Amino acid sequence: MKTFAGLRVHEIVQTYSDTLIRVAVQQTKNMSEAEDIVQDVYMTLMRQKKPFDNESHLKAWLIKVTFNKCKDYFKSSRVKKTIPITEEMTFIAKEEQMVLPEIFELEPQERAIVYLYYYEGYTTAEIGDLLEMKVNTVGSKLRRVRLKLRTILEEGS
Q1: In contact, 62 and 45? CB cutoff 8 Å
Q2: For burial by CB atoms within 10 Å, which of 1, 24, 90, 131 has the most?
Q3: From the DSSP assignment, how many helices (H) and strands (E) are in the chain?
Q4: Whole-angstrom distance, CA of residue 70 vs CA of residue 64
Q5: Domain boundaries, the chain
Q6: CA-based angle 10:11:16, to the nearest 5?
Q7: Where are the extended beta strands (E) located within the chain?
Q8: pTM of the entire structure?
Q9: Fold of domain 93-157
Q10: Would the keyword Transcription regulation be found if you checked this record's keyword annotation (predicted)?
């Protein structure tokens, strides 16, 4: 059985599927497309020949590939009108559900930064590596997104 960073494939799927689905849903706003993207990420993992240094390297790689697959999705002809947020997304924690609709009003790159920073706990430097951006750019975008979210939330109340 093939292993990556000391984990078997089924262990990787059990450990990271929820995270990858959340990333893909946040980007595509479509649960079925998100599931397809995550499946494609795992297929890419199976073709991966280069070893991972450790489990955090593997997790970062999985998230980065998920973001890249989401970008590919938007470039493809498969993109249809997105569906509204529905009950099928109940896998997301309750505290996330309160903010989730507002996050969907952000641009995809802004959603990615917010998700990685607040929900996955990555630093701005790590986000810069994952999204191939300069650290200062990530920091300034994060500040702008906070202001934008504050405005959106204040308008809604």
Answers
A1: yes
A2: 24
A3: 7, 2
A4: 10
A5: 1-87, 93-157
A6: 105
A7: 3-4, 7-8
A8: 0.71
A9: Arc Repressor Mutant, subunit A (1.10.10)
A10: yes
